Every structure is written in C-alpha cells, then in structure tokens.
Automatic annotation (TrEMBL):
Pfam families listed in its UniProt record: JHBP (PF06585)
Source species, domain of life: Eukaryota
Keyword Repressor: no
Signal peptide start and end residues: 1-33
UniProt organism field: Aceria tosichella
Alphabetically ordered keywords of this record: Signal
Name this polypeptide is given: Uncharacterized protein
Keyword Signal on entry: yes
Amino acid sequence: CGAAALGHYRPKMNLSWGLVLAAALLAVSGAGATELEDLARKITEDFRAIMKTGRPDINMPVTDPAVVAKVPITVKLSPFDANVIASNIQIAGVQAFDFTELAQISGTNNLAIEVQVPDINVSGEYDIDGKVKISFIKVKLNGQGPLKLAIKGLKAAATVDLQLNEDGIPSVTALKVNSWTYDQITIQLDNLFDGGVMGKTVN
C-alpha cells in the first residue's frame, strides 16, 4: 500500500521545512505501533527510497538533491540588513533524516515528530543588495556569484494534523513547526565586494 499511499500524499508546508519533514509527516515507529503508525512507517521508507530518483508516474520529483529555481530572502539580523535573491539552488543530504521522536497523539490522528538531519549542503547563485555594519561603520553590501551553505546537526520538532479518507489513506491538513535548532551553519558568498578583502572579512 506504500506506493498507492504516496500517490495520495499531498502535504502543505513551508518550503524551508518541506524537504526535511515531508517523509516525517506520516511517520511513526517503535514497539506497540498502531495501524496508522505501521502505514505511516511504510510510506516513510517508500518516500526515502525514491528521494534520489523521484516517481514520474505520480509526478513526484527528485528531492535529494532538491532543486529550487528562485527564493527571495530578507535578512535583518545584526550586522546585516539586506535583500537577497537566491537562484538555481540545489539542496542535498536530506535523505539521511532520522527520527528521534515519532508518536501518534492519543485519541487523535495527529503526530508529534522530532527529526534530525546530520548534514545539509546547499549550493546556487546569489544576488545581494543591502548594508553590513563592520565595527562602527555601515558599508553598502552588494555582490553576485556562487553561494554555498552547510548546515550541521539540524533538528526540528513539529505537530502534524492528519485526515483519513474513505480508503484509510492519510493526508496532511496542517503542519506546525514547534522548534528548530542547528549545531553549525557556514555560508560562503563568492565575489562579495568584488572578491576583495572586505568580502573575505564578511564571509
């Protein structure tokens, strides 16, 4: 039933967590699993198996690496105040997700999930325009070029609301990310400040 269930799988979620939590939305495991948990675990492993190949017959694309055409980002976090357009983005490493907590919430068809991904690597192109504060000076921040981002030890906790159709196939009606943390993030923006000393300082 895993492949059939994948054909009915229609999660609604933010892009930033879609790749990490897509498999987790219907997944629970462990001793004493309920019927829903058994079905969810089967769907999860089916999903993991096709992340690198996709399933054209059900219009499911490759999701590791996932490809995102363009994402606008506003950064207002000291010392940065900038607008960024990230494009031609590839996100790799999500297939290595692991669940630290997967439990059906008693008396409901909802799931409490905690998931972790050891390493996520992002590459693409960027176009940035804004300002950065270096010491006591605000400097215009600009540049275009390749970007690389590495995230280590990504962890997230979420609550997923499910609804079963008449065939017993679950679909996601809501997803709430309750918390997320990471051990380390590194970002490299090539050609920042035309690749000079200032660009190396900001990176």
